[in-house]
Design a protein that fits this description.
This protein is about 40% helix and about 15% strand. It is α/β, with parallel strands linked by helices and about 160 residues long. It is globular, with a radius of gyration of 16 Å. The mean pLDDT is about 90.
Length: about 160
């Protein structure tokens, strides 16, 4: 292997709030496609024995896991996160980002998503009950798997 070759694209997971079914999809895909999948969290995570899957535990604290992902994710990598500000940061570095429901964050939609997130934060801060996200379901799982498959196919 040429030492000058860029490392193969890999998957970085903001794992603290990632649903279990999404992690299972990532574990299977990592093995099948032989792509490195790294879960980053501020708690210990169980991962299956695999040379393609690992967990990285970081210190607790505000944005510590996010900062660790931003430091590592490079152009061509995929970041799985529900965190819109984190998605904006990795997009700025050239990585791609999707959420566990299979929604892609793109340079074209990230500003709107950040604005909506900030607006909802303001409403909650003012005491407005905004409700939470709908329960994670089979359709979300399938949408995530489809987006992951697209990324895997595009990286070949």
């Amino acid at each position: 292997m040429n030492d000058d070759a860029a490392p193969a694209p890999q998957v970085w997971v903001d794992a603290d709030a990632c649903p279990g079914p999404v992690k299972e999809i990532l574990f299977r895909a990592g093995e099948r496609a032989q792509v490195h999948v790294t879960l980053i969290a501020n708690q210990w995570l169980r991962t299956p024995p695999s040379r393609f899957i690992r967990a990285l535990q970081v210190q607790g604290g505000y944005d510590v896991a996010d900062d660790a992902i931003v430091e590592r994710a490079k152009a061509g990598d995929l970041v799985v996160t529900q965190d819109i500000p984190l998605a904006a940061r990795v997009l700025a570095n050239g990585a791609q980002a999707i959420n566990p429901r299979g929604d892609r964050f793109t340079p074209d939609n990230i500003a709107e998503r950040l604005s909506m997130r900030n607006f909802m934060d303001e409403l909650r801060g003012a005491g407005v009950q905004t409700g939470g996200p709908a329960a994670f379901n089979a359709r979300d799982r399938q949408a995530f798997a489809n987006q992951l498959d697209r990324w895997l196919a595009a990286r070949r």
